[in-house]
Amino acid sequence: MERQNKIKGIVLVMGASSIFGLMPLFARIGINNGLNTITIVMFRSLFAMMILGVYMRQKKMSIRVEKKYWKDLFMVSTFGYGLMVLTLFYSYLYMPTGIATTIHFVYPAVVLLGCVTIYKEKLTIEKLLAVVAALVGIYLLSVDDTGFSLHPWGFFLAFISGVLYAYYILKVSYSTIREMNAYKLVFYISMFNFIYFFITALLTNQLSMQVTWIGYLDMVVLAVCSVLAMAAFKTGLTYITSWSGAILSSFEPVTSIIIGVILFNESFQGRNMAGSLIIIIAVVYIAWIEKKSSAISIQQEAEVVN
């Protein structure tokens, strides 16, 4: 049973990462139809909250949250996810998105560091190799021939976004909200983020309402995808370790690259191929590590019984 749960967790997180990899496609359609980056996240959060509200009502699921969850729920929604998206988007103003994405993907290393220093997990050479492989793969996927020139403020924002996402993963894995229903968690994250980005749009004069019906439809589809991806990611983290989830989520840019090549005729060079292969190897390696740890646990339980 434990081995099946590990496989389930791996499939859920990889599935979530693949869906997240579609986000640039929806963002491009939204921008072409009257939206900007802030209002994209705002409308995505609004429609996700509405869709989940209807779904939970039909399933007769209570949206009430016990008092013990509120602190962690607020922190993970506002700082772990909302501020992460905001800092990443603003880093794009100072440097190419590929470079910003590369810096953002420091989060697997930060998750591993948090697991070892805060939650006292054992640091092994296997875990370290998996993190290094994922970072190398992301670098090869994201950086183009223009090089790796860094803008100090852009670097800071992209790096902070990675740290905040690592905080989000660790909170979902280790705090009280680990016990929460995945759909309820996504409902409240969406609610907090709608408020967060609505206020941000007002303060920065970016509340764009001249949106075509295609733009709104795009946001509804994006909201559905976001709900499925976030719920799958949260559920997957209940079966596998947080650092494994962080490595597996590095599959996201591979999906983005594939979509770009198929739909937008973007170039796919040898460097991109190498990066994709390294990430796939890292993902397979993680699956092997999880399978091995599951086998060890089963063997230990058998020895205790005997």
Radius of gyration, in angstroms, nearest whole number: 19 Å
What portion of residues is helical? over 70%
First-residue to last-residue Cα separation: 19 Å
Principal-axes shape call: globular
Major β-sheet profile:
none
Weakly predicted, low-confidence segments: 295-306
- Average predicted local confidence, pLDDT: 83
The counted number of beta strands is: 0
Counted by DSSP, the helix tally is: 13
Structural class: mainly alpha
- N-to-C SSE string, H for helix and E for strand: HHHHHHHHHHHHH
Strand content: under 5%
- Taken together, the total number of domains comes to 1
Word description of this protein:
The protein is mainly α and 306 residues long. It has one domain (2-294). It is 77% helix and 0% strand. It is built from 13 helices and no strands. It has helices at 2-20, 23-31, 37-58, 67-91, 97-104, 107-117, 125-142, 152-174, 182-203, 213-236, 242-248, 252-264, 270-305. Helix 1 (2-20) runs antiparallel to helix 13 (270-305), helix 6 (107-117) packs antiparallel against helix 11 and helix 9 (182-203) crosses helix 10. The protein is globular.
